[in-house]
Amino acid sequence: MKTLHPKSAPAPFDHLVLMMRDQLMERAPHFEQDGYRLTELSVHNLGSINRLIPLDTTYIELLGWPAGKPPARKEIAEQPLGLDALVFKTENAQATFERLRDEGFEVNPVLRLERPLLFQGKQHLAQFDTVRFSAQPVAGLRMYFCQHLTPEFVWNEDAIRHDNGAKSLDHIVIEAPDAQAVAAQLGKVANAEAKAQDDGTYVITLRNMQLVVRPAVGLTVAKISQAFLRHADDELRQFNTHVGVESPQQNLPAD
Q1: In the chain, helix, strand, coil percent, each to 5?
Q2: pLDDT in tens, 60-93
């Protein structure tokens, strides 16, 4: 078994972005019907809106912008519906910026992101420092780093209790025309190892979950294809994005 980019102290995973474009409010009921407890709607200082599915150490972000309005954030304006971005966690955004810059990645200076929210009956301001790439390291994938300055507003006992028993994000599957090259680059970004498997896939083990890079014939760029959650019964279940489903009243097909 071949190892790419052996590293120490891999980055933890922070969250997986599910792009809802201007349809977030009308599509959110699908996930509530699936048994997830979503956070209340929040508005970022950059103009985007979101609702979250908090898990044990990660979360899934339903991201979009208000219906009937143009997107205020240029980096998401052309993103299609569906699994959209990989976000890694950092405890020091400035140090992460410097590491990535020194390793040759094109990164923007640390950017502060804020959103007001209601927490335990009171208004608060959730704050994050993000490290974003001016040129994405892997064609087809959007990724960045996030430092939570107010993590208590994302992860708390009530928020992570879901009726369907969802507990943690176990692994994310990425399809790529060149699995080895994509895995090597992802490993470098996340400061983690990418290990080749006998079936031609590569597994990148982060502190709290795994990325699985799978070769795919016919693709020209990489894409996030699936996510799997661990539930209270210890079973793995694929996360249903409901992309292509029009109405919460319809029978909802599995991904």
Answers
A1: 15, 40, 45
A2: 999 999 998 888 788 888 899 999 999 999 999 9
Sheet arrangement for strand 59-64: 42-43, 49-54, 59-64, 13-21, 82-89, 142-148, 122-132, 111-119
Say if residue 43 is in the same domain as residue 142: yes
Domain residues for the domain of 29 are 13-153
Q: Positive or negative, the Cα torsion across 225, 49, 127, 32?
A: negative
Looking at the structure, tell me whether residues 107 and 215 fall in a common domain.
no
List pLDDT tens digits, range 176-214: 999 999 999 999 999 999 999 999 999 999 999 999 999
Query: Measuring CA to CA, which residue among 99, 140, 131, 97 is closest to residue 112?
Result: 131
Q: How many distinct structural domains can be found in the chain?
A: 2
Alpha-carbon gap, residue 22 to 176, rounded angstroms: 28
Residue with tokens 């969802």: 166
CB 110 within 8 A of CB 96: no
Other C-beta atoms lying within 10 Å of the C-beta of residue 151: 13
Structure confidence at residue 51 as a pLDDT band (50, 70, 90)? very high
Share of the chain above pLDDT 90, in %: 75
Residue 94 lies in a domain: yes
The reported pLDDT for the residue numbered 246 is 63
Q: From CA 175, how far away is CA 182, in angstroms rounded? A: 9
Do both 48 and 93 map to the same domain?
yes
CA torsion, ordered 220, 201, 255, 58, to nearest 10 deg: -100
